[in-house]
Design a protein that fits this description.
single chain; 69 residues; mainly alpha; 3 helices; 62% helix
């Protein structure tokens, strides 16, 4: 069964809001479980959508936070 948020990115504001809603439901998910993996996937999709929408360089920000760039 395919999940509506399985595309490689969130296409629009409606998909973004749906991802935020689903993420909220998964806040207490245990790492390493299917729900925990879904939480991680949604986090990445949301971060990437926000970076595109707000016009910032996500890769550069991650490097800066890691202290490598």
């Amino acid at each position: 069964m395919t999940h509506p948020l399985d595309p490689p990115s969130l296409a629009d504001e409606a998909a973004y809001v749906a991802a935020l809603d689903e993420l909220e439901e998964l806040m207490l998910a245990e790492p390493g479980t299917p729900a925990g993996h879904r939480f991680d996937e949604l986090t990445v999709l949301i971060e990437e959508y926000e970076a595109r929408r707000d016009g910032y360089d996500l890769a550069r920000m991650r490097r800066a936070l890691a202290g490598t760039g």
